[in-house]
Amino acid sequence: MPKILIIAGDATEDLEFFYPYQRLLEEGYEPRIAAPTHKKLQFVVHDFVDNFDTYVEREGHSWPSDLALSDVDPAEYAALVLPGGRAPEYLRNDADYRRLVSHFFEADKPVAHICHAAITLAPLGLLKGRRTAAYPACAPDVEMGGGTFVDDSAVVDGKVVSARAWPDHPDWMRAFMDVLREHAPVKKSAGDR
């Protein structure tokens, strides 16, 4: 069963973590959660309310990480998932985060990112020449990073699949599963159909 790395931290968007985590399990992958430190993480829920110019933030679920970023050997993983939320604001400053994310792009492995995760990729030059979705407020970050912002629910650029935010989950994960099935398939046993 291929291992998929999910990088999260405190204030990761709850839905943007759990939806891909559960879809990966459902498809037969082994998702592993890495965070700045090996600990129980506190996620947040971003929601939209009438007559409010931006989203509101509420406390979400908590979930344990499996290992610290510094303990991850990216060669052991077939793909990477980067949820959004507020966590990307500080994750992008972590040297191990930058090392890991860069590995997946340089090795041309499948990557799924959503929402504010794009702000971690732009400073590394990983969006240069790419078409990508992100939370629309992150469009300037994408463009300053040399990418082309696309306002769509699932943008596939090679092996990279991006989306705007959690309402895009079905399209985003459907497209990412197609990429994984092609480039990092789950090996079926003789008894599987």
Could you explain the architecture of this structure?
The protein is α/β, with parallel strands linked by helices. The protein has helices spanning 14-27, 88-91, 95-106, 118-121, 139-144, 169-183, and strands at residues 3-7, 30-35, 40-47, 56-64, 67-68, 79-82, 111-114, 131-132, 148-149, 155-157, 160-163. Strands 5-2-1-6-7-11-10 form a seven-stranded mixed sheet, sandwiched between helices. Strands 3-4 form a two-stranded antiparallel sheet. A two-stranded parallel sheet has the order 8-9. The chain is globular.
Strand content: 25-35%
Oligomer: single chain
The structure class reads alpha/beta
| Cross-sheet strand order for the largest sheet | 5-2-1-6-7-11-10
Low-confidence stretches: none
Q: Total strand count, please?
A: 11
Please state the CA-atom Rg, rounded to the nearest Å. Answer: 16 Å
Mean pLDDT score? 96
Helix content: 25-40%
Largest sheet entry? 7 strands, mixed
| Tally of helical runs | 6
Shape: globular
Intertermini distance: 16 Å
What is the ordering of alpha helices and beta strands? EHEEEEEHHEHEHEEEH
Short synopsis of the structure:
The protein has six helices and eleven strands. The protein has 193 residues and is α/β, with parallel strands linked by helices. β3 and β4 form a beta hairpin.
